[in-house]
Amino acid sequence: MTEHSAIEQYPQDDQSITVVSINKGNVSVGVATIVLSKVNRIVIRLEDDEHGTPVKGQSFTLLYDRGGERILRLKTNITDVIQGGKCFLEPTGPVSEGERREFLRAQITGRSYLEKVEDDYELIEEHDSVDSSRWYEQEMDLSGSGVKLDWDGSCKKGDRLRVTMVFEGNQSLVTAVGKVVRARPSKGGNGLLDVAVHFVELSESGRDRLNNVVFKHFYQQVGSRFGTTLLQDG
Prior knowledge:
By secondary structure, the protein is mainly beta. Helix content is 15%, strand content 50%.
């Protein structure tokens, strides 16, 4: 792989990514921001304390999205750590493809608000546009490509919805435009619709936030054995 083609697969500057480390069988999953991304040299800023105090030689696997169907993985080692949670990383191999986004999913408790939109609706992320009284809190089946959830509205297969979500422990909203692929009465007998939505429009920053939430909850739910398998190449 040439240097040019390699950098095209590397995470981008300012991109929000997921960082996974495994220590004695325990999986730690956190969020980081790319400060600098060059071939054989990456600098990240850890945005939480999920990994404890990072040290030289520690291995980090970076999980991120560059707009393709599959999640990308890059294995690295820490070469230096400076104040402010910044880590200098050296890749230990090429970028590899991981799971398809729709196959990596998790059950996540959060709040949602859905509304019908026209086919020509253009997505604008309005972070304060939803009255708090209109949120519905529930457990959602979420992936990087769509969501399954209950809704008190009315829709049919093929309709377009504007989906706004905020997740437990995560103050960032994710807003997407999705196409309804299934709508049927909820099994709970509560008068709600069980709706499955495939995302057709999502900003890059929104997709990064969505992926981070899914990764974190996925590894927490499946445990270290499956997490280790997912981090292997192939």
